[in-house]
């Protein structure tokens, strides 16, 4: 009879669940940032949205550079945060050391916060590239540990 | 020794699993809707796809408004349904009241069905905005309850 | 007292976790392929990225056909691999036959590898369409089995 790993009594799962939640909330915040940018720039994606702008200058455009910058940032979050959540959830099942696991979760989360700051200010490159690479490497590290434990 | 939460014997998990599955199937249906729209409008994304259209008018375009409308709807589903599944899965671990949880899952699912109807007909705004906001608020509510339970 | 399903001692979960991990790694590889294509074609999405190219011909463009092909492939992975992981994770909870489950996971993974080869070479259609359809049908099959088990 085995003790379940996926319970908040398991410190590794509780820490994972916390960082998965705040990383997901950070990703969801990009939706609000996109809406805000559309109103600021009067740049809407659909004809029926123009009335929301209540501004004579509101227009339909899919190429506003500031709106598209936020949207690329959002998509980049999806491309990186969703894999982190999937791999992190499976990584919990190998019962890693709580300290090692926590540092992976923390590093990933803060790398994505930094990535967004670097993307939106924007900071000169390679700032954003470094933010991306650290998060990517953290998820890869968990994936490799998981696969090694699976075949041990 | 703790009882596992992630089993269909747990009513909250069973309800979550049902709504997560049908929300994911709804999201997957957008792929088929995109393909259908590409054939209807003879608007394909790749040169090699034109032969599938078997129509002299088939062309490569990334700017057909009807195809792009379906694709934005699909991406909006990904931006909202994937966070719902992640946050909902973690929310199960705090062992919420079954009734409260079920209403969150139901509200989210129907808000996304309404969002798609409002996007594709389209209905006048703020219909789609309201559909989006209700789903978003539902996921936020689960996230807040989860974080409060974690730090209690 | 029920035995947890989500443990590596459960062969179905261990097999799922393996294929979910390598499918996610395959999806993550598309990020690197996009970066590589941007450097090869000197086609960057942001003005601040041009300095990374260190080439007088580096330019900002969102319409390079080769870069956009890789990006559509990446988005198609997200649209299909994320649903596979969600539905597959829930499918484990119905305790399916290990052999049946393993063939679903394997078929899905190899259909996505074939889809990417067909997209990037590219192979003549309907190669890519067949790769897409097999993966889609595999996820649908797990969803249907899950829903049937839930209402049995």
UniProtKB/TrEMBL annotation, chains A, B, C:
GO terms for cellular component: endoplasmic reticulum membrane; mitochondrial outer membrane. It is an enzyme of class 2 (transferase). GO terms for molecular function: glutathione transferase activity. Conjugation of reduced glutathione to a wide number of exogenous and endogenous hydrophobic electrophiles. It is found in: Endoplasmic reticulum membrane; Mitochondrion outer membrane. Its main location: endoplasmic reticulum. Keywords: Acetylation, Endoplasmic reticulum, Membrane, Mitochondrion, Mitochondrion outer membrane, Transferase, Transmembrane, Transmembrane helix. Its EC number is 2.5.1.18. The chain crosses the membrane at residues 12-33, 81-105, 129-151. It catalyses: RX + glutathione = an S-substituted glutathione + a halide anion + H(+). This is Microsomal glutathione S-transferase 1. It is a multi-pass membrane protein. Belongs to the MAPEG family. Homotrimer; The trimer binds only one molecule of glutathione.
């Amino acid at each position: 009879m085995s003790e379940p790993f996926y319970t908040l009594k398991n410190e590794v799962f509780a820490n994972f669940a916390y960082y998965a939640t705040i990383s997901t909330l950070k990703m969801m915040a990009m939706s609000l940032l996109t809406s805000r940018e559309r109103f600021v720039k009067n740049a809407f994606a659909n004809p029926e949205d123009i009335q929301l702008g209540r501004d004579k200058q509101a227009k339909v455009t899919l190429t506003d550079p500031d709106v598209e910058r936020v949207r690329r940032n959002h998509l980049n979050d999806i491309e990186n945060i969703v894999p982190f959540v999937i791999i992190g959830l499976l990584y919990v099942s190998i019962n890693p050391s709580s300290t090692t696991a926590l540092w992976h979760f923390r590093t990933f989360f803060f790398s994505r916060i930094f990535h967004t700051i670097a993307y939106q200010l924007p900071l000169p490159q390679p700032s954003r590239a470094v933010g991306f690479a650290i998060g990517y490497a953290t998820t890869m590290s968990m994936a490799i540990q998981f696969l090694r434990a699976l075949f041990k």
